[in-house]
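Practice problem: predict the structure.
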Amino acid sequence: MYMKEESSFRKSLNLFDSTAIVMGSMIGSGVFIVGADIARQLGSPGWLIMTWVITGFLTVFAALSYGELAGMFPHAGGQYVYLRKAYNPLTGFLYGWTLFLVIQTGTIAAVGMAFAKFTGVLFPWVSENVIWYKLEFFHYIFKFGPVQIVAIFSIVILTWINLKGVVEGKRVQNVFTSGKFLLVIGFILVGFFFAYNSDSVAANMSYFWEPAIKDKAGQWIPLTGMALIAAIGMAQVGSLFSSDAWNNVTFTAAEVINPKKNIPMSLFLGTFIVTILFILTNIVYIVVLPLRGDPAGATVMEKGIQYALNDRLATAAVTDVFGVYAASVMALFIMISTFGCNNGLILSGARVYYAMARDGLFFNEAGILNRKAVPSAGLILQAVWASLLCLSGTYSQLLDYVVFAVLIFYVLTIAGIFILRKKMPDAERPYKAFGYPVIPALYIIVAIAIMLILLIYKPEYTWPGLIIVIMGIPVYFLWNKQSV
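Answer:
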C-alpha cells in the first residue's frame, strides 16, 4: 500500500547536485572498455580519438539544445514531457514505454553487470564462468550465477537508498561522482606522467590516420570511402553508450532548485567536462599502448589496444605502473564508477514513470509519492525489470539495443525544438538552444546517419530496438481504452 503523504516533490537539488547527476550518470565503465572494440573496427589511433570527438560534439550539442526545453517545461519527467508537448501523448508514451523496457532499465542492467564483472576481479568466486542455470530461448541465452546475483544486489541496494528520499540519493551521487571525477583525473595524470611509452607513441604515429582492419589472412586492409564511414558509424555505438544518460537530470526537474536556470547549466557543464575527460582518457591509451596488436600476444604491449585482455584497456594502460596489482586497482576504480553511475540512473528514471502515471499512461501507483516524497512504486518496478534484464543477453547486446532506441528519441526531441518554436512562439524561453537552427539541425542529420548505418550493418540488434518502440503503439491505445 502506497500512502500519499506528500502531494509534491521536494526542491532539494542545487546546481552542484544536478551537475553531479549528469556527470555521474555518464561516467560508468564504458570509457574503460569500449575503446578496444572501437580500435578493432577502425585500426587507427587518430580515428579512435575522432570517434570520441564526434560523440562529444553530438552530446554537448544535444545538451545545449535540451536546455531550451528544460527551461520551458521544468516538470518531473523531463524528456517525456518535451515529447508530449511537441508532438502528442502517443509520442510521449512511446518514449516512456521504451525507456522502461530498454533504455533506462537496460542501461541499469548493463552497468550493474559491469559492476559485478569487475567485482569478480577482486573476488574470484564472482565468476562469469560459474553458471548455476542456463536457458536458451530462440537466439537468446538466459543465465543465472554469482555475477547476476551481485549485479541484482547492487540494483536493489541503490533502489532501497533512493526509496528513503532524494536527499539520500543525492548524497550518494555527490560522493561517488566527486570520487570518480578525482579518480579519472588521477588515471589521466598517471597515464601521461608515469606510464608514457615512447615506443607505443612511435608505433601509433606511424599509422595515426590510416584506418584499416585485418582480413582472415592477417593482412591490413585500408578503410576508405563508404567502408570508413560505415566503420565510424558502427564504432559510435560504444562511445555513444558510454556518453549516454546525460539527459537524466531533466527527469528530476520538479526537485531542482531554480530548474529554469540550473538544469540547462548542469546539462552543459556536465556533458562538457565528461567529454573532455573521455577524450583525454583515450589519449592516455594511445601514449601508453600500441593500438594495433595480436590477439595471441603474450604481453600487454603485444596485445595492444585492440586485444587488451577482456577489453580492459584502463587496466592494461597502468600495468607498468601498478604491476600485478593493476587489475585490482582498476577493478576497484570501476566498481566505484559503475555504482555511482547506477545511482543516478535509478534516482532519475522513476520520475518519468511518475509523470506517465499522472497522465494515466502507466500504473497508477507509480504516480503516488511516498512519505519521503519519492515515487516508490516506480522505483520498485524499475528495479524488478532491470534485475530481470540482468539475466538476459550480454553487455554488448543491451548496449546495441539501448543506443539505437536512445537515438530515435534524441532526434525526435531535438526536432521538437523546431516544432515548438512554431507551435508555441510566445512561450517563455529562459534559455534558447545554442546555435539554433544550425546546431540542432546538424545533430539531427548526424544522428540519423548513424542510425541508418546501424540498421544496415547491425540489424540483429537495432531492428529489435525499433520493434520495441513500434510495439508501444497498440499498448498505448489499449491502455487508453482501459482508462476511459
